[in-house]
Amino acid sequence: MPPHGDDAQEAGLMRSMLFVPGDSPRKFEKASEGKADALIIDLEDSVVTDKKPEARGLTLAMLKGSRGPHQLYVRVNALDTGVTLTDLAAVMPGKPDGIVLPKSQGGDDVRHVATWLEALEAAAGIAVGTTRIVCVATETAGSIFGLGSYEGCSPRLAGLMWGAEDLSASLGATEKASGGVFHSPYRLARDLCLMAAAAAEVAPIDTVYTDIDNLAGLEQETRAARRDGFSAKALIHPKHVDVVNAAFAPTDAERTWAEKVIAAFASNPNSGTLRLDGQMIDKPHLRAAKKILGQP
């Protein structure tokens, strides 16, 4: 069976990524008590401009505190703000597991940040190359055209997250969704980000769910994301964590199917295709079965 609950955190799986304001140690402490697989300490949207210097110091203190099972990421400010390097220099001594880069335009942005990280890792005594990068890859209209450039851009790239909030402003749109369903420009951004992540062989991460008290809607959206191939979801409230973790867990029927597929190929190692329960299966089915069970 694949790891679940606390075991999933210990195995390094990433299903839930909870944003925490970089200027709020209290919210960080509360988030640390939950079961999010990753906490994203935010220096961007959740921190007003005049508090960013203070937030950098507080974020470093959070990183240097007692580490739980969570992976710790820091969302820095976007490259076009001119303060990305200032953010990185301030937090890298805390040895974050990864950096979240907002408003990324493509693979060149990843390479740019990777170059900075190499020097900052060396200065902080961190093994060079170990700090991962997750990009928020759909926040501007232009970024959509860069989605194909992430493949092979850097071994640091760990995930691509799609986002709708800033994209709405970039498009000049008056509404993102109605009846809980995204309008077509946002569905396009979502689907292209999913495909770009698959092509780059990194985690596709679904956007935040903003209707905080609608847990049924959150579950429905997360199950749809998992159905389509997303492996994680970004979150903005601690109460969403358990719902999202449960929605990404394989069902009993999926586990049973996966175990049967793996057993069938194990018994026929020289076969490329097999018949199972009246259906033809091949190596893509085997890869899907291993993914369900958390196997390499």
TrEMBL record:
Amino acids binding Mg(2+): 139, 166
Keyword annotations of the record: Lyase, Magnesium, Metal-binding
Gene3D superfamilies: Phosphoenolpyruvate-binding domains
Membrane spanning stretches: none
SUPFAM superfamilies: Phosphoenolpyruvate/pyruvate domain
Domain HpcH/HpaI aldolase/citrate lyase: start-end pairs: 15-238
Coiled coil: none
Biological processes annotated in GO: oxaloacetate metabolic process
Gene Ontology molecular functions: lyase activity; magnesium ion binding
Cofactor: Mg(2+)
Binding-site residues, substrate: 75, 139
PANTHER family: HPCH_HPAI ALDOLASE_CITRATE LYASE DOMAIN-CONTAINING PROTEIN, LYASE BETA SUBUNIT, PUTATIVE (AFU_ORTHOLOGUE AFUA_4G13030)-RELATED
Family label: Belongs to the HpcH/HpaI aldolase family.
Name of the molecule in the record: CoA ester lyase
